[in-house]
Amino acid sequence: MALRVTDQRFEELVDVALAQIPAELLDQVENCALIIEDEPDPEYGDVLGFYDGTPLSERTSQYSGVLPDRILIFRGPLLRMVASEDELVDEVRITVWHELAHYFGIDDDELDELGYA
Questions:
Q1: Distance CA 74, CA 92 (A)
Q2: Terminal-residue alpha carbon distance, the chain
């Protein structure tokens, strides 16, 4: 059975995870929206979050006039994988940081080495 928290509480946990990221990193984030959705689109597979966009490390001077990148955080899978709110806090933080790392161009292999895959 999935853990239950209100939508507002889940959003608060995402905000807490973002607040723990050093300001000097967040200040570099441009043209990127963080969106909470209930479930991932089947095309994404079985995931907790997803980064959709052009990583900062791949942007050139030609990068302009594009829609914002998106960091998607999926409430349903996160709530189903934990047994307590303490576990949810940790998993939300890991997921938010993991997807933000993709924005900066850090791939899954590097994240795995850092313990965020």
A1: 9
A2: 24
DSSP state of 44: G
42-99 pLDDT, tens digit each: 998 889 999 999 998 888 888 888 899 999 999 999 999 999 999 999 999 999 999 9
pTM beyond 0.85: the answer is: yes
Angle between helices 7-19 and 85-103 (to 10 degrees): 50
Alpha helix (H) ranges present in 1-117? Answer: 7-19, 23-26, 75-81, 85-103, 108-114
Cross-strand partners of 37: 74
